[in-house]
Amino acid sequence: MRIFGRVRQRPSTDWRLATNRAFTLIDDGRYDDADALLTRAADLEPWLSESWFNLALLHKFRHDWEQARSAGLRAVALLERDAGAPDWWNVGIAATALQDWPLARRAWQAYGLPVPGVTGADEPLGMYLGGAAVRLSPEGEAEVVWGRRLDPARIEVQNIPLPSSGRRWGEVVLHDGVPRGERTTTSGGVASVYPVFDEIELWAPSAVPTWVVLIEAAAESDRDALERLAADAGYAAEDWSSSVRLLCRACSESRMPSEEGDGLAQHDPHDHSVPGQPGPLGHTGASGLWSPERECGLAAPSALVRGLLDGWVADSPESRDWRDLEEVC
Asked: Per-residue DSSP letters for 142-154?
């Protein structure tokens, strides 16, 4: 193959050594040192799309979106094929981070994805990519939550995250393109598999605070009534006593059954929650029966949250109560 009138050769030994060393440094978090090596590799082999792909990847890790976009565009300009190339996906992530919607549309289309909309200047909404899970704070106290995919690089969080994640219900996060783990659900006897993507950074914050409250719910139907009441008001309530599942890193990044779907999944040895604490073992008492005391997360404005809880109790005061409301995020 000829590029700019010359025959393409295999990358030089110096290029391979510099690139391999750079990725070792990236694994150690030494991004500045890796930058110097990958820049040298690009100087050695500027005709090679991988030179610029690697630099774009590094800049993505550093959240330097201007540089990621620039290097990504150089990479795609040297591609032998367009459709399906991961170079375009990285360009799409950088363009989305920068809200460069014409380039984001071009990137997703070049990758092979249909993008609705009339003009290339519009935000690429309505791609109907379905649901997925996203791992918030993947390098810290990671938490996997469910969300709605807005486009190939953004997810709107639909669970109420724990306060340790620093994230809120309704926030939009930028996420990576390669899944790390899967979650399965079963509905009507049909199993569905959903990818788990790693968060890169917060893309759009939420103004809705997160609260934690202890409720007394005599039956599951009482708990469900609170969740419906919050949803009808345009916000959310979530029974953390049963929805939170504690997994080790290896389990989290594998294919795991979810409690979403037909009901509670059977406990398995991968589940590290303990009786009496949030998690599948915590939402029943020692006898295996329903435990009325629940720890719930609420996502609602401060002006509404107490009225919402009081209204829930007023509908059935003999079977419901609440206490210890606290804003946590």
From this structure: -EEEEEEEEETTE
Task: Quote the percentage of the chain above a pLDDT of 90.
Answer: 66
CB contact set of 163 (below 8 Å; sequence gap of 6+) = 210, 212, 328, 329
* H or E element in which residue 65 lies: helix 65-77
CA dist., res. 179 & res. 172, Å (int): 17
User: Which H helix or E strand runs over 196?
Assistant: strand 190-204
DSSP for 94-162, written as a single string: HHHHTT-HHHHHHHHHHHT-----S-TTS--------EEEEEESTTSS-EEEEEEEEETTEEEE-S---
pLDDT of 83 > 90? The answer is no
What is the rounded CA–CA span in Å between residue 211 and residue 129? 30
pLDDT at 6: 42
Look up the pTM and report it.
Answer: 0.84
Closest by alpha carbon to 150, among 189, 117, 119? Answer: 117
Using the structure block, give the residue that is written with the tokens 């750079």.
22
Instruction: Produce one character per residue of 138-176: b if its CB has 16 or more CB atoms within 10 Å, e if not.
Output: beeebbbbbbebbbbbbbbbebbbbbebebbbbbbbbbb
Over the stretch 43-80, which tens digit does the pLDDT of each residue have?
999 999 999 999 999 999 999 999 999 999 999 999 97
Give which of 94, 42, 33, 37 is closest to 68, Cα–Cα: 94
Q: Residue 126: name the closest of 145, 152, 150 by CA.
A: 150
Helix (H, G, I), strand (E, B) or coil at 212: strand
The owner of tokens 């996060």 is 173
Residue 209 in tokens: 């605070």
Per-residue pLDDT of 20-32, as tens digits, reads 999 999 999 999 9
